[in-house]
Design brief:
25% helix, single chain, seven-stranded antiparallel β-sheet, 12 strands, five-stranded antiparallel β-sheet, alpha+beta, globular, 279 residues
Length: 279
């Protein structure tokens, strides 16, 4: 019987370090009482010129609270739960200005057989199959201007996204790259992203599933697929296995001149047989 373990890691990018700014990414993960695992990564919008590091944390913790209320995958990322998150944002729990709460979020909740994935804004998810193949899917919006859940605090902007999505003038590209197949691009109607896009992933032939902020594609000139492949090359699954692997990868990349320009977050589950946990 497979078992699941989960972990996360986030770090600041050089662009924010040089500017004396805080890390605008955040990540959290955990295990629910029924054995399901979850993970969330968030990415505050740098272009907002606001304290989006706070918004990223508020959004991640609000999403975590919603997941902790669920009893099954079907309960996860429902319209009702997203509405509650928007209501929480509208209370502006840390004060500030509406722009502080603009952040992308990528999350999953998983059983040993299925993962339900959620994305609002941009980001990426990657999987390592049991045969060693790695695949990454990145979401991109026109002009690098995603629709954020936090636009519930800016009704005019929210209405503009809604109108563009309704008339078909706006779509989101999902670009998938794999170590053993040609790249695939899918255009998803932006309408599907306004409340957050969800998909289910069959874990039967997957040994690891990761979610990332878009920093995975901004590590100097390193290809996002190569970065994901390195980050998913776990040696063992004890304790902070994602943190160890990511920190080792960053050290290796630095020696090769590959530096994370943007903040970088990753969270992942490992699906393994019990004897693999410490192997």
């Amino acid at each position: 019987m497979p078992t699941l373990t989960v972990d996360h890691y986030f770090t600041i990018g050089t662009s924010h370090t040089r500017a004396g700014e805080p890390c605008q990414d955040y990540a959290v993960s955990g295990t629910l009482k029924d054995g399901r695992v979850y993970a969330i990564v968030t990415d505050g919008c740098s272009g907002a010129n606001a304290r989006t590091d706070l918004g990223a944390r508020v959004l991640a913790l609000a999403m975590e609270s919603e997941l902790q209320r669920t009893t099954s995958l079907q309960d996860c990322f429902t319209p009702a739960s997203i509405h509650r998150i928007r209501t929480h944002l509208q209370s502006m729990p840390l004060g500030g200005i509406p722009q502080d709460y603009l952040a992308s979020v990528v999350a999953f909740c998983a059983t040993t057989t299925t993962a339900k994935l959620f994305m609002a804004g941009d980001g990426a998810y990657a999987a390592r199959q049991t045969n060693g193949t790695v695949q990454i899917t990145e979401a991109s919006w026109p002009d690098n201007a995603p629709n954020y859940l936090g636009y519930c605090l800016q009704p005019i902007v929210a209405a503009q996204f809604t109108a563009s999505a309704a008339n078909g003038a706006l779509s989101v590209q999902l670009n998938t790259h794999s170590t053993n197949a040609d790249a695939i691009t899918r255009d998803i109607p932006a309408q599907d992203f306004l409340q957050g896009w969800t998909t289910e992933i069959d874990l039967t032939d997957i040994s690891a599933l990761a979610i990332c902020t878009d920093g995975i594609g901004q590590i100097s000139k390193l290809d996002a697929l190569d970065a994901a492949t390195t980050c998913l090359a776990f040696k063992n699954y004890e304790g902070s296995f994602v943190k160890r692997r990511a920190m080792k990868a960053l050290a290796q990349w630095e020696k090769s001149g590959h530096i994370p320009q943007d903040d970088f977050s990753i969270a992942a589950l490992a699906r393994m047989q019990r004897e693999e946990v410490v192997s």
